[in-house]
Automatic annotation (TrEMBL):
This is Cadherin domain-containing protein. It holds the Pfam family Cadherin. It is found in: Membrane. Keywords: Calcium, Glycoprotein, Membrane, Repeat, Transmembrane, Transmembrane helix. It comes from the Eukaryota. It comes from Callosobruchus maculatus.
Length: 626
């Protein structure tokens, strides 16, 4: 049994058969039924690359966007249609960012990123061909890329500076012993490695004393050197040039001295020094070390203004002359020259000022107050909080704190807004919060400022606060107030009960419960108040001739006090005049703490009230003591 295959590879692409039908047990002729089986295509074939894997040789100076490979091709054996349509892509990988397909339906690769032979000489890229079936079928292959070196680098000396001492005796043809090694340069384009030739870069009296080998760079004396010649070190500039491209060259210096002493040399070509701006004048910033630390030398700087800030002694020690300020000058760069009178050397000094968090954030105003009238949109800012920091590089972060801080938000530039969840339509009230500014220094410093926001309706502010989740706090506060009120009422009830009990158990004073001011026209008998009686029945009231009025706090001021309390209200206006005896009622109710007795009991108090004269002075007054 063979499988069906539309392509006719694994099996037949179509089947044609005849079905013969014969009727049994009869002489009737049979008939033939033709059957034609048509095979439909299925996505059973994956794309196949032609001539894979691929190899690409490309120059490092190839311009980005150049078509570098057009031979990528894959064939899908499925029938013409989506099952055989192939698209190409570069699979993600370490070097997949160098290439891309110009069109996914065509196998043309385009350079996407510059190449560099010195950093990457060869690498692989994975490519995929995939049809449009459901599900799709795909096939992968590898593109190996070889980067070709181009002449894009200058030659380079093994050392930038060389030194040598004249031989003794300095005769013609004598070779110089060069340090730290023989002069040599190489082409940095390693793939090309062009040959190098050497020459002196300049001409002059010093150059005429020496001869430089064009191929080996060895230096010999061109003539005998007398004692009067070369009184100072000779600095010769040596040039290394590519033979195939004169525009590619490099320079180095050769210092030749007559002295056999060791030539001065800094240990570093560039000294990087960090100095905190908190250093005090006189502090040592750093030392320019050399190969002769026991000797003293003369030092010179390229910029004389540097000496206003720093000083340099004969040991190469740099000290501070005035305080540094990062905001004013974050970095100092200058060259230093040293000489012992015969040899010399130079170096570059870079002093970086380390910033110190000196300043706290500062707000423009000590207090911010904003007023909101009418309807308010959350997109509109209530106002702006302005803050700054004296440290140049510090960034400020603004934060809201306080009981009402959750109602508001603040942007990085200080715009204060009401949060969008709170809708306001002509409301009033007052909200208090604090804005805290924190800088990014080390250690960070903070400053705060109070902010008050006024709205229209005081009652609506409470609704906003409750809408923001403070209802529990308000309920707790109201509950606490209610407990305090219950406690106060209980104390008052206990006090009243105790007073009533004492008034019922102790004998009633003969004077009744009403006390009036002394009237020259009235009898001498005065009605006393039970509150001024002690346990022995003696009156505790004020001395005779003294007049008091009720206090706003419910107490009676002492007789000795000369100054009235500001919370004590004056006595009320005089009460109406007592009527004459003819019109006076025979039933007078006693005013006392025991006023809850029946009217029958109060009839006994009639005898305690004396009949006054028919005419009473208008100046008479009634004072009730509680």
């Amino acid at each position: 049994c063979r499988p069906l295959d539309k392509e006719g590879v694994a099996g037949p692409a179509s089947v044609f058969v005849n079905l013969i039908c014969d009727r049994l047990e009869t002489l009737d002729p049979g008939f033939v039924i033709p059957i034609n089986i048509r095979v439909t295509d299925a996505n059973d074939n994956a794309p196949v690359f032609i001539n894979a894997p691929y190899v690409l040789n490309i120059s490092e100076v190839t311009v980005v966007g150049t078509r570098v490979l057009q031979g990528v091709d894959a064939i899908d054996n499925d029938q013409q249609g989506p099952f055989s349509t192939v698209k190409y892509s570069v699979l993600p990988g370490p070097h997949s960012d160098f290439f891309e397909f110009e069109n996914e339906l065509e196998g043309t690769l385009v350079l996407k990123k510059p190449l560099d032979y010195e950093s990457l000489k060869t690498f692989d890229v994975h490519i995929r061909a995939q049809d449009h079936g459901e599900p799709p079928r795909s096939n992968d292959t590898i593109l190996t890329v070889h980067v070709i070196d181009a002449d894009d680098q200058n030659p380079r000396f093994l050392d930038d500076r060389y030194t040598a001492v004249l031989p003794d005796p300095p005769k013609k043809g004598s070779a110089l012993h060069v340090k730290p090694r023989d002069i040599k340069a190489f082409d940095q384009d390693i793939g090309i490695n062009a040959p190098i030739y050497y020459t002196f870069n300049e001409v002059g009296p010093d150059y005429s004393l020496f001869r430089l080998n064009r191929l080996t760079a060895s230096v010999t004396l061109a003539k005998d050197v007398s004692d009067g010649e070369l009184p100072h070190p000779a600095i010769l500039v040596v040039r290394a040039t590519q033979q195939d491209n004169p525009d590619r060259y490099a320079l180095a210096t050769l210092t030749v001295t007559k002295s056999k002493d060791k030539a001065i040399k800094f240990l570093h070509s560039v000294f990087h020094i960090k100095a905190s701006e908190a250093l005090l004048p006189g502090a040592m910033v750093g030392t320019l070390t050399n190969n002769r630390p026991q000797d003293n030398f003369r030092y010179f700087v390229s910029d004389q203004n540097i000496l206003k800030t720093f000083s340099l002694n004969t040991k190469g020690e740099i000290t501070l002359k005035k305080k540094l300020d990062y905001e004013e000058m974050p970095e100092y760069t200058f060259k230093v020259f040293a000489t012992d009178g015969v040899t010399n050397d130079s170096t570059t000094v870079n002093i970086s000022v380390v910033d110190v968090n000196e300043w706290e954030p500062r707000f423009r105003y000590p207090h911010y107050e904003f007023f909101v009238a009418g309807a308010y949109e959350p997109s509109e800012p209530l106002g702006r909080i302005e803050a700054a920091d004296g440290d140049k590089r510090d960034m400020l972060t603004l934060e809201l704190r306080g009981a009402n801080a959750s109602l508001f938000s603040i942007t990085h530039d200080g715009e204060l807004r009401l949060k969008g969840g709170v809708m306001r339509n002509g409301v009033k009230g007052t909200a208090h919060l604090t804005v805290v500014a924190t800088d990014s220094g080390h250690p960070p410093k903070q400053a705060s400022v109070p902010v008050t926001v006024h709205f229209n309706d005081p009652g609506d502010m409470a609704s906003i606060i409750s809408s923001r989740g403070n209802g529990g706090v308000l309920l707790a506060g109201l509950g606490a107030i209610l407990l305090i009120l219950v406690f106060v009422v209980a104390l008052l009830a206990a006090y009243i009960w105790k007073v009533k009990k004492n008034s019922q158990t102790s004998p009633s004073p003969p004077g009744g419960s009403l006390s009036s001011k002394k009237d020259p026209l009235s009898p001498k008998k005065v009605t006393t108040n039970p509150m001024f009686e002690n346990s022995s029945g003696a009156t505790r009231g004020p001395p005779a001739g003294s007049t008091f009025s009720a206090s706003a706090l419910g107490g009676v001021p002492t007789a000795e006090g000369k100054t009235r309390s500001p919370k004590v209200h004056p006595a009320p206006l005089p009460p109406p005049l007592w009527p004459s005896s003819a019109s006076a009622s025979s039933r007078v109710k006693k005013l006392s703490w025991g006023d809850d007795k029946t009217d029958t009991d109060s009839l006994d108090n009639v005898n305690n009230v004396e009949q006054g004269p028919s005419k009473v002075l208008e100046s008479s007054n009634l004072t009730v003591y509680f």
